[in-house]
Structure to design on (311 residues):
């Protein structure tokens, strides 16, 4: 690798060259990141400590929140710290590491969202067989598949980039390392690699998104035969998941449909799916789910009682 890479570090152009804008972004993104970590951690803690949230749906939700923390942490800390410095640099190995974990956690989240859609399908379309189908062993297996799928996806992406020669330009017109900005810096023809990258990342995103949409169309058609109360309860739980799916997949599909573009709007879209979406997921699931809100309230009351006992 040392023989093919004369570049040992890359320079990020970041989001803006104006210091005033960077200071404002620093405050905003720091608050967003802290809220993302705290919000998703509360969801994980609530599911783990509440007996009323023992169903497979909340089992998947706890893992989704954990992945959201990891996914946001691959880019947010670096972005926030770079907003306070003039030289926004990252080593070659640091760039490849960030690239790997970004796609690893992103791919894992895609598979987890698909697993959650399957859970809702079984719960609504086959309620009498729900407990026999969605066993604890099956749920653990599905989560394992999600982690494995994320790893395979990320490994394929990093493998496509690893052997590319970087011998000249080292300025990345972005704020984190991703496949498409790195391809533009390679000292070789990357047409075939670009196609493979699009096939790997774009196909995974688009196909998963279509599968999710089809599954919820089937669920909605099935709900026509249920009572109004049953439809309302089912739509309440499905609505949260559909909203998260659209918020997560929408920007990804937008990016991979035009992989060769280098527009400012791409950075804005990237900020949305790296900083905003991980925060919205716990907010949406919490506000639209009465059981989660009740469990969080009980957790808060127990914490207050412990504080009173210590005082």
């Amino acid at each position: 690798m040392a023989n093919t890479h004369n570049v040992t570090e890359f320079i990020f152009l970041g989001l803006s060259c104006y210091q005033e804008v960077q200071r404002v972004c620093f405050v905003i993104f720091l608050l967003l990141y802290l809220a993302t970590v705290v919000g998703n951690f509360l969801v994980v803690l609530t599911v783990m400590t509440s007996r009323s949230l023992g169903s497979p749906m909340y089992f998947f939700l706890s893992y989704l929140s954990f992945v959201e923390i990891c996914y946001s942490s691959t880019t947010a800390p670096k972005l926030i710290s770079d907003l306070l410095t003039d030289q926004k640099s990252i080593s070659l190995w640091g760039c490849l590491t960030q690239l790997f974990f970004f796609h690893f956690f992103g791919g894992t989240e895609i598979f987890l969202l698909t697993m959650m859609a399957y859970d809702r399908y079984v719960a609504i379309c086959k309620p009498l067989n729900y407990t026999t189908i969605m066993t604890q062993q099956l749920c653990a297996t599905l989560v394992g598949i999600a982690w494995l799928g994320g790893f395979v996806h990320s490994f394929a992406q990093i493998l496509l980039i690893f052997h590319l020669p970087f011998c000249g330009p080292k300025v990345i017109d972005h704020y984190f390392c991703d496949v498409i900005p790195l391809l533009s810096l390679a000292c070789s023809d990357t047409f075939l690699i670009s196609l493979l990258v699009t096939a790997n990342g774009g196909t995974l995103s688009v196909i998963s998104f279509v599968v999710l949409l089809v599954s919820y169309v089937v669920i909605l058609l099935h709900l026509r035969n249920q009572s109004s109360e049953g439809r309302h309860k089912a739509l309440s739980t499905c609505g949260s998941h559909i909203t998260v799916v659209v918020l997560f997949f929408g920007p990804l599909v937008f990016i991979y449909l035009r992989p060769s573009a280098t527009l400012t709007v791409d950075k804005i879209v990237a900020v949305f799916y790296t900083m905003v979406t991980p925060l919205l997921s716990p907010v949406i699931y919490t506000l639209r789910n009465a059981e989660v809100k009740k469990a969080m309230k009980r957790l808060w009351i127990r914490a207050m009682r412990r504080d009173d006992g210590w005082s």
Observations:
- The chain has one domain: 9-310.
- The beta strands are 9-12, 89-91, 171-172.
- The CA atoms of residues 185 and 262 lie 13 Å apart.
- Residues 92-125 form the longest helix (34 residues).
